[in-house]
Amino acid sequence: MKVLVPVKRVIDYNVKVRVKADGSGVDLANVKMSMNPFDEIAVEEAIRLKEAGKVEEIVLVSIGVKQAQETIRTGLAMGADRGILVVAAEDVQQDIEPLAVAKILAKVVEEEQPGLVIMGKQAIDNDMNATGQMLAALMGWAQATFASKLDVDGDSATVTREVDGGLQTIRVNLPAVVTADLRLNEPRYASLPNIMKAKKKPIDEKTPADYGVDVSPRLEVVKTTEPPVRKAGEIVGSVDELVTKLKDAGVI
Amino acid sequence: MDFEITHEQRMLVETVRGFIKDELAPLEQEIEETGQLPDEIARSIFEKSRALGLYGMNIPEEFGGGGLSALETMMVEEQFGHTTDILIRRAFGNVYEVLLSCEGPQVERWLLPSVRGDRVCSIAFTEPGAGSDAAGIRTRAERKGDKWVLNGMKHYISDGAFADFFVVTAVTDPAKGHRGISMFLLDKGTPGFNIGRDQPMMGLRGTSHLDLHFDDVELTDENLLGTEGEGLKLALSVLGRVRLAQVAARSIGKATKVLQMTLDYARERVQFGQPIGEFQMVQQMLADSAMEISAARSALWQCAWEIDAGLDPRARISVLKVQGSETLGRVVDRAVQIFGGMGYSKDLPIERYYRDARIYRIFDGASEIHRGVIAKSLLKGGAQLFDPWGA
Ligand SMILES: Cc1cc2nc3c(=O)[nH]c(=O)nc-3n(C[C@H](O)[C@H](O)[C@H](O)COP(=O)(O)OP(=O)(O)OC[C@H]3O[C@@H](n4cnc5c(N)ncnc54)[C@H](O)[C@@H]3O)c2cc1C
Fold first, then answer.
1. Chain B residues in contact with chain A using a Cβ-Cβ cutoff of 8 Å
2. Which residue, A126, A237, A129, A112, is CA-closest to A182?
3. How many CA atoms within 13 Å lie on the side-chain side of B125?
């Protein structure tokens, strides 16, 4: 079976995000960019399936600016086999919206015919949490979102999902879309030999036009602002003092 | 001139950095308190690191190493500086390039097992009467028939307790001065070779620093590393890169880590109603540290680039030995100052960095010795050290 893993280039989770002065978005010029952490988990899961002998090939796809090639290389260095880079934007500030991404992915899926798509539940830059669901809808496939456990068995998969209030286990027929949650696994480091091997793995370069998809934005960002500054905490000496303070603050 | 860091280099550094943060840093405090890294933990970090290809990265691929260029070696060595001496040794290996001089049966016996991490090597040059003056050693190897007989002693030998074998300097021809010194590979357990005391040190907790005693130790020609009489020449030609890596690059990495911690503290610690980072006298210390670190790193990369380009790096390595270690010294000293009492207290690792930093200006040739090398090179006409346009 072949697995397709979409990976997105996002601002690194360690970077202290700065809002641009004109409020049009977050400053992405000259900041560290990395693979979306949930996508890393998806790549790791695909590699584990391959190591377990359930998957033959792992194909990565990234849609965005040309530099997303590095994101693909990172996944190849973890152990994926090849990549497809869809260059859909020139400006590093431009984000491709979930529907456009899902439409391109649908075309890639038609071409590649994977038995499974594993992807991050959301990207940490704009937290849409939509692409996986849209892709499943476009393909008419089963979807298992927020996965914290994945077992592939023949032509079905058993997925434990992290839902409000607990865990839900479902079985889906393959092909299907699975989106990875935080606890699915802990991604590995790229080993030195794999980093060297990744240089030689192939990456196909495409454009949205190759797939006949229009990526122009449908959403308009009205304003971006810094989150409100959290007020400093206070250390209290005893439970009594805590209760008094909470009462004074009118919270209890 | 291209200062761009490649994506491969970035990925490699991220792996090393992540490994140090997740696997090694959590062990540091306990080693500091007990002075020990338990064998089973040493084994486990070694195996994890080896599985990632992070052991012996400086050694060429044909001998099973990681095959990194000098520049890439310095990039990862800088990261090593974020953790402690003993953890670097166990996780990444100090696989000395001098072992690349192994020939014939020596390759299987000493070089390859060292690169695999199956055997660990220490360097044993220093004696109570001969430190900076490495040619002043008294340890003597005398030829007797087809054997060598070794007598004498060494001290301060890092990691001696864990090491399986030692690269030892000994006088083979007393009449020839520094051209009468040779290097030997000496296995632990060889009859007549006795391990002495472990010298307690100011810092580097967890690493042993042993006395070694040689009483009529019988060796064969297979133990002789390189050519007879060329021991010091060999040391000079190959230990420079080690010095650049283990002293200069690690110092710069340590300084970088300490400055980051200092910045975090200067932002958070409030006195007189504002973060102490708002006070100009504190700001000056922060700015000075950042300037010195970034100057030292650029010089490090230039020196590594020269090695990769096949140029003679010796004088510049001396520059970096001093620049790196003294930058670290100033940066940790300012860190203690900015942390105030917390910098002196054992509740934070700053005082440990301060103690650990001190040796970098002494071992592998004290600052004074390297300044001497630099000055000699300048006086002989080595203007390139400070003037790339010069003759
Ligand atoms: C923690 C630690 C680990 C070590 N690990 C090892 C190891 O693994 N293997 C090994 O072989 N050795 C090791 N050493 C020894 C180390 O390399 C020596 O301590 C170092 O070379 C200095 O020698 P010394 O201590 O004899 O000092 P000395 O040579 O006695 O120097 C004392 C002072 O005199 C100055 N001085 C000496 N000569 C001159 C000169 N010509 N001009 C100006 N000033 C001069 C020095 O700079 C220094 O300030 C280690 C030492 C320590 C402390």
1. 7-8, 11-12, 14-15, 18-19, 51-54, 57, 66
2. A129
3. 19
Domain B232-385 has CATH 3.40.50.2300: no
State in words which class domain B7-101+108-116 has: mainly alpha
Task: Give the pLDDT of residue B391.
Answer: 61
In sequence order, what are the beta bridge partners of B127?
B130
Bridge partner list, B272: none
Q: What stretches of chain A show up as alpha helix (H) in DSSP? A: 37-51, 68-78, 98-112, 131-139, 192-198, 239-248
- At B303-325, the pLDDT tens digits run 999 999 999 899 999 999 999 99
Note whether B24 and B87 are within 8 A (CB).
yes
**Cβ pair B15:A199 closer than 8 A:** no
Q: Which two tokens stand for residue B167?
A: 């690269």
How many contacts (CB atoms, under 8 Å) link A and B?
Answer: 37
The whole-model pTM stands at: 0.92
Chain A residue with minimum CA distance to B56: A192
Give the closest-approach CA distance of A70 to chain B in angstroms: 7
**Phi and psi at residue A94, in whole multiples of 5°?**
-80, 130
Q: Ligand 1 center to residue B244 CA distance, Å?
A: 17
Please give, rounded to a whole number of angstroms, the shortest distance from the CA of B52 to a CA of chain A. Answer: 4
HSE at residue B8, side-chain half, CA atoms within 13 A, is: 14
Quickly list H helices, B179-313: 231-243, 250-268, 280-308
**Which residues in chain A are closer than 8 Å to B11, comparing Cβ atoms?**
73-74, 77, 190, 195, 198
| Residue in B closest to A189 by C-alpha | B15
Closest CA to A77 of A92, A54, A60, A55: A60
| DSSP symbol at B110 | I
What class, spelled out in words, does domain A2-248 have in CATH? alpha beta
Q: How far away, in angstroms, is B127 Cα from ligand 1 center?
A: 9
What's the token pair of residue B354? 């301060």
Q: How confident is the model at residue A234 (pLDDT cuts 50, 70, 90)?
A: confident
Nearest CA in chain B to A70: B7
Q: How many residues are given for chain A?
A: 252
Q: Where are the domains of chain A?
A: 2-248
Give the angle B137-B234-B232 at the CA atoms, nearest 5°: 20
Write the ipTM: 0.89
Which atom belonging to ligand 1 lies closest to the Cα atom of B133? 29
CATH placement of domain B121-229: 2.40.110.10
Q: Indicate whether residue B235 lines ligand 1 (CB < 6 A).
A: no
Higher confidence at residue A45 or residue B241? Answer: A45
The tally of CA atoms less than 13 A away on the side-chain side of residue B374 is 17
| A135 phi/psi in degrees, rounded to 5 | -60, -45
- Distance from residue B37's CA to the centre of ligand 1 (Å): 26
pLDDT in tens, B42-76: 999 999 999 999 999 999 999 999 999 999 999 99
Would you kindly state where each structural domain of chain B is located, as residue ranges? Answer: 7-101+108-116, 121-229, 232-385
